[in-house]
Design goal:
mainly alpha, two-stranded antiparallel sheet, 13 helices, single chain, 2% strand
Length: 332
């Protein structure tokens, strides 16, 4: 009697191999393919999306979130998080404008704003590295007190500075390219070099992959953590200077909610929330996806509250993709 062929379900090993294959190709081309498909969709659905002016507007709008996300990438690679980058942006912008209005020249005012961001990041890193406090709690607290600091410095009111000496950083152009975009490119070249071509970058990945193993290997884990939070704060400081230059004022509400867009860009770009792996160039593509999505929804006249729903779904999808990638990795 002929035995019927019985289809055997795939084994856990085969399922893991399938997930690993999907994760491999997603890491290679997936996020870029999403950007291309989203761009094509918006080109069809959103009027004037492909115009040169709109393209420049998208690039200019993306630049601030992308700079925030570059710093966030380095922090998340160490398995940390920084919820305070939006508040650091606000404080840094306020510091820069206050320095300018008090008579400080443009360059020192800009450097002062960036320094304010670096100091805020340093304080976060000190609590995380030296007191071993959870980064989520530390930066949640600093998100609140830094926002309060921005309000208190201005008595709760915006400070207009129409003659701001460094306004070109937000509204100028270099060879037809908006200055914020040029600064964004410079930031990403620097971060790519730090992560991919320096000993510090290798230590960042090592700390995120296994902090105890990194410590046993002789890496100064506390110094690495202090460094990444300080660098992330400096990046947020630069974003705050650019923001204040764009709006020609110090705004205590600046950067409100920007930390969510930055985290979404990082995770969409392939950086694992569990730490140890990620690419800063992937983060740039993630930031572009969020920028294109936001711009397209505006051009399509989608109400603001529906835009929030869409962006929230994107964040959940980003975290789900990160979870799938981690499940696809062989367990140690």
């Amino acid at each position: 009697m002929t035995q019927a062929t019985v289809l055997q379900p795939s084994t856990p090993v085969e399922q893991r191999k399938t997930l690993a294959t999907i994760a491999y190709w997603w890491d290679k081309v997936g996020i870029f393919a999403v950007l291309v498909l989203l761009g094509l969709f918006m080109a069809i659905m959103a009027p004037n999306f492909l115009s040169v002016d709109n393209g420049l507007n998208v690039a200019r709008a993306v630049s601030i979130n992308a700079i925030l996300a570059a710093g966030m990438t380095m922090i998340i690679i160490t398995a940390g998080i920084d919820l305070s980058v939006g508040s650091i942006l606000a404080v840094s912008g306020v510091a820069g404008v206050l320095l300018w209005t008090s008579g400080v020249p443009a360059v020192p005012a800009v450097l002062g704003g960036i320094l304010a961001g670096a100091v805020a990041g340093f304080v976060n890193g000190a609590f995380v590295a030296w007191l071993a406090l959870p980064a989520f709690i530390v930066t949640l607290g600093s998100m609140t007190y830094l926002r309060g600091t921005a309000y208190s410095l201005l008595d709760g009111q915006p400070l207009i500075a129409s003659g701001l000496g460094y306004r070109g950083l937000g509204n100028g152009a270099v060879a037809g390219i908006p200055t914020p975009v040029v600064l964004m490119i410079i930031v990403y070249v620097i971060f790519w070099f730090l992560l991919e071509r320096t000993t510090f970058g290798r230590h960042v990945y090592a700390v995120g992959g296994n902090m105890e193993a990194a410590r046993l290997a002789g890496i100064n884990v506390k110094r690495v953590l202090l460094g990444v939070y300080t660098i992330g704060g400096a990046a947020a400081g630069l974003a705050g200077i650019i923001f204040s230059a764009r709006v020609l004022s110090a705004q205590p509400t600046a950067g409100n909610g920007y930390e969510l867009d930055a985290i979404a860009a990082v995770v969409l770009g392939g950086t694992s929330l569990a730490g140890g792996r990620g690419r800063v160039l992937g983060t740039l593509i993630g930031a572009l996806i969020i920028g294109v999505l936001s711009n397209g929804l505006v051009l399509m006249n989608v109400p603001f509250f529906y835009q929030l729903i869409v962006k929230g779904v994107v964040i959940v999808i980003a975290v789900a993709l990160d979870s799938i990638r981690r499940l696809s990795r062989p367990s140690s």
